[in-house]
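[retry 2/3] DUF59 domain-containing protein: previous attempt timed out, resubmitting with same input.
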Amino acid sequence: MSETTIDTNALGEKIVRVLKTIYDPEIPVDIYELGLIYDVFVNEDHEVKVLMTLTTPNCPVAETLPVEVQEKVKSLNEVKDAEVELTFDPPWSQDLMSEEAKLELGLL
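[retry 2/3] DUF59 domain-containing protein: success.
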């Protein structure tokens, strides 16, 4: 395994830890466990792209949540730049939540 692969994997894990500190204001579960993060891409230049969704297109935090995600990911020393792309394809559903999130919300 090349050093770059290890670096980007370790960075990916750090990014996930940061994402787990961000909560949807209406649901007491972090956005990662809620399934709002669809993908995280890290290139060799340590530029990060986060593909995420919201629980609904007219979510009250539609303006602020992606900005918070971008700023927190960018605040990591190893990250050169970060971009957040919002998508509603596929639309979010409770099926995307982790078992932990479903337990937390009494859905299991």
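[retry 2/3] DUF59 domain-containing protein: The chain is about 30% helix and 15% strand.
[retry 2/3] clearing retry counter.
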